[in-house]
Amino acid sequence: MPRTALYSRSNPGRAAKPSSQVVAGTPDVASAPADALPEPPGPSRRQRIGRSLNHPRSLWLAIGVLTLLLAMSFGMPFKPGERRITQEDINAAVMHTLTNQVLPSPAARAAAAVAGSVVRVEGYVTGKKGKPDTEQGVGSGVVIVDDGTILTNLHVVQAADTLKVTFADGLESPATVIGLQPENDLAVLRAQKIPDDLQPATMRSTSDLQPGDQVVAVGFPFAIGPSVSAGVISGLKRGFRSPQGGQLMSNLIQFDAAANPGNSGGPLVTMDGQVVGIVTAILNPTSARTFIGIGFAVPIENAAAAAGQPPF
Predict the structure, then answer these.
(1) Choice among 28, 146, 185, 256 that is catalytic
(2) What is the pTM of this model?
């Protein structure tokens, strides 16, 4: 039986600061057709072992072992010629580990937490008179329920006749649209096939977000990915009007983590590895549809409602 979407309460110790609404008319993030780069081979056994040794758990394990040895040394009879393990020995060992082990950054840990939930979304237009289907564009999505329920942007899928999603493990599956929320440029997809160990992302309330909070955006900019970019929340409760459809969107999260065509529908993630928004648009006052430092995301409360999920 599919599990319901995963939610996490916001930090009760922080109160959200209201932010003024800004309305801007500039290009939104539309999926740009491009050839996807070949996926690199998976990590070797040696690389996996190295990553395990670099994990923070390895540091704490080493500290725990040294502490146990210190406790045992005080509890065991001292023999002439033996040297007891001292607190200075433990401090030196810890400092040696901190100096020589490269620990993952907060952004890397946040991206890793949602990596298994991010999908590539491809739209195709049916070919006519025996011609093959043509790719309409590439966007991103995030799994929110382990039955293959996926959140993405409406503009990623609306011009396509058929859809295909590719999961983090490489599994490809046809997908269908099962829900729409046009006012927030959101679509809900359901994959026909899913990985056996599919892990949905955990969603988190935006009620305590503040400008300056660190975030990462994960997706497939220009069909390259999955790619990760890092930045901060720049503002809250922003407004944006799409120059194509003239649609006004409100209550958006403004952020400065790099996003480009193809990032649409991907998750905006806090440093605790939880999804607070769905990347939907970028602001660029020029004719170029590229990132210049202002992106917008739909708060996850709106996005979850589009999928019929309970509130936080």
Answers:
(1) 185
(2) 0.72
